[in-house]
Write a structure and sequence with these properties.
Elements lengths: L1 H23 L17 E2 L8 H4 L13 E8 L5 E8 L4 H13 L5 E2 L6 E2 L1 E8 L8 E2 L4 H4 L11 E2 L2 H8 L5 E9 L10 E4 L4 H13 L5 E2 L5 E2 L1 E9 L3
Parallel strand pairs: 1-6
Antiparallel strand pairs: 2-3, 2-6, 4-5, 6-8, 7-13, 9-10, 9-13, 11-12
């Protein structure tokens, strides 16, 4: 009788231990891995050849504020293919959030590996993508608000951010003032018309100062295909960081 009680106790302990280990293993969560674990997600690492800056040029062509960060979470399978993609931290722009999720689905990632035998397993990961400006300042036919729109204006190739940036931006308090300006110059870099405000900073005095500063500056003209200076219009931002 004592042997039987010990046997039943031993079996019960084994079942409890198995249940505890299953709960601690994120790959053995609810059927279908319906959601990420409650803790922090690991930062995704790209497989060779997966470069979001090259694979996702659409990240540069949304109406999101330059520098806005979307943190995307997703399940990476043993083959490195992402699935169950969703936004963990919004950039504040629905269009950029959608583009960020679409970008993740185009990429491949390094899967997590199991301790001991290094077998690839499912894992929840996250990737922070940043709204960046076009790779080069786009020329415009002329400077006016209708012709220039809300496109970003300065070169910034970085599209991958730290997930902490999304939180830092929300806690930063007053945002930096930014005014979009468009100027047209001749082949000598001299203005051919007064600078035009394309995006207001929301502060009338700052907008005026940005236009005055842009009007007093000297510019390097664009170059033609044969390297000769050529007239043209281009856009940029004038800004000041709030302290």
């Amino acid at each position: 009788m004592k042997v039987w009680r010990h046997l039943r106790l031993g079996c019960a302990l084994m079942l409890v231990a198995h249940a505890a280990s299953a709960a601690a293993d994120p790959t053995s969560a609810a059927p279908g891995n319906s959601g990420p674990p409650a803790g922090e997600l690991s930062t995704a690492r790209f497989a060779w050849g997966s470069d979001p800056a090259k694979r996702c040029p659409e990240l540069r062509h949304t109406n999101a504020e330059e520098g806005a960060v979307a943190v995307v979470q997703f399940l990476v399978g043993p083959t490195g293919v992402p699935s169950k993609v969703s936004v963990r931290e919004s950039s504040g722009s629905d269009s950029f959030d959608a583009v960020a999720m679409s970008c993740v689905q185009k990429l491949h990632f390094l899967p997590a590996t199991r301790l001991g035998d290094a077998v690839a397993v499912d894992s929840w990961q996250q990737l922070a993508l940043k709204s960046a400006a076009p790779a080069s300042a786009p020329l415009a036919a002329r400077c006016d608000q209708a012709g220039t729109g809300e496109a970003a204006e300065t070169a910034n190739p970085g599209v991958v951010a730290d997930a902490q940036e999304a939180t830092d931006r929300k806690k930063a308090g007053p945002t930096a003032a930014r005014a979009g300006v468009c100027v047209c110059v001749d082949e000598n870099g001299k203005l051919t018309q007064p600078p035009v405000l394309t995006n207001s900073s929301g502060i009338a005095g700052f907008d005026k100062a940005a236009l005055d500063l842009s009007g007093a500056a000297h510019y390097r003209p664009a170059a033609s295909s044969n390297g000769q200076p050529t007239p043209g219009c281009f856009r940029f931002k004038v800004g000041i960081d709030a302290k």
